[in-house]
Amino acid sequence: MSIRGFYLTVNDIKIYCETNDGPSKDPIICLHTAGRDSRQYHDMMELLKDKYNLIAFDMPAHGKSWPLPANEVVNKFEDYGRWVWDVCKALEVDNPTIIGCSMGGDIVYHMAIEYPVKAICSMQGADYTATVNDAILELLNHPYVSCQHSHLEFSECLIGRATSQERRDFIMWGVMTEIGKTKQGDLTMYNGFDVRDRMSEITCPVLIIQGEDDPIATVEMAKATASRLRNAPVTYKGIPEYGHFIAVENPEKVSEYLDEFMQTLGV
Amino acid sequence: MLQLQETINGPEAEKFLNYYYGKFFSGNITLIEDEEKVTLTLHKGKILEVVDGIPSEGYDVGVQGTKAAWDKFCTHKSLSVATNKGNELNLSTLGSPITFRQNFNVLAQLIRVYAGIR
Question: Whole domain around residue B99: which residue ranges?
Fold first, then answer.
């Protein structure tokens, strides 16, 4: 195990980060899925430790990071974008490659529109993800409904059929450790994510990795998103039989595709 | 539906009762496909009886849809997918939103098993 944890103070909030201390000069910044934390990148950090410096951090109110003042959470993608950029600045990273999955896979598109990133990799992301019912959103943070239990099948249905039991168990453990208010903020953000009319502003290289056994963040959504990237070099890599938590489900294939992509960037 | 009762009470009982928290469920589950309506009465996760129609005292929880919606459900077998607003040909929910969410796993697993024998 070659993963090191540390804290940064960003905007007066303690943010927990993990890195593999890999050799590349410019780090790859890794964004986790809704409600979860940086542990989703442990396997990729191990697989890529001899090539790339990966830094994953827990978003505010996730994992071991502190929430916002008065225990508030982030629920807008523009605010998440500012947090990601402020963390990059605190890490003294000027020109990051940013990768993310699901919610993180959405946010990377916003980052490429608004911030001077080197490149992005979107896993199970899209430019429009209004898919969650309002009743479910409201009841993620309700005194009579357990977020962890009521939302179990939602995560379960997203896991690809070829995923190993050990990795499936870790994903399901993630559901059981979620904070209702945080998850509600994340899925509110996810539900309100729509940058379709700004996708042509993206000009940096884009890698799209799509676990194809994902019935909610679908192949069709990823390909529709790719079609709107008119001014960016786009590489699409589909991974059959693996699903939504692709960085956890098949880190070997994701690392292979990310390595190929980074080499095209000259990193 | 009698085969569903035998399966939930038999070979699927352990998973249904414990992994999907069926052991905490007592009440009615109503399933509607087009004009066909069936209500299953459960006590602590065991199906006690299956009757045609809807409960006279009103729905506890349930799911309804057209034959086409149920056919589609049988291809993925996920209630989350079948109620996701981004998808077409969805199933719709019966009962109060809170009760439905409280018992989501129970219902999801019951109709997943149903899809396997439908």
Answer: 2-117
Q: Residues B73-88: pLDDT tens digits?
A: 999 999 999 998 877 8
Name the burial class of residue A116, with classes exposed (0-12), middle (13-18) and buried (19+) by CB atoms within 10 angstroms of its CB. Answer: exposed
Handedness of CA A264, A126, A161, A182 (dihedral sign): positive
DSSP designation for A107: H
The answer, for A133 touching chain B at a CB cutoff of 8 Å, is: yes
pTM above 0.90, yes or no: yes
Quick: pLDDT tens for A92-123: 998 999 999 999 999 999 999 999 999 999 99
ipTM above 0.90, yes or no: no
Residue B19 half-sphere exposure, CB side, CA atoms within 13 Å?
A: 14
Structure tokens at B72: 């589609």
Token pair 């569903």 in the structure block, residue: B4
Band (A1; pLDDT cuts 50, 70, 90):
low
Q: What is the pLDDT of residue A86?
A: 98
Of B81, B102, B104, the CB nearest to A216: B81
Is A4-264 assigned to CATH 2.40.10.10? no
Starting at the edge strand found earlier in the chain, the sheet holding B61-65 runs: B46-52, B36-43, B27-33, B61-65, B92-94
Question: Across the interface, do B76 and A157 touch by the CB < 8 Å criterion?
Answer: yes
* 3-class secondary structure, B49: strand
How many structural domains compose chain B? 1
How many CB atoms neighbour CB B9 within 10 A?
Answer: 16
Nearest CA in chain B to A160: B76
- Across the interface, whether the CB atoms of B102 and A144 are under 8 A apart is answered yes
CB atoms B84 and A130 under 8 Å: no
Q: What is the CATH number of the domain that holds B71?
A: 3.30.1050.10
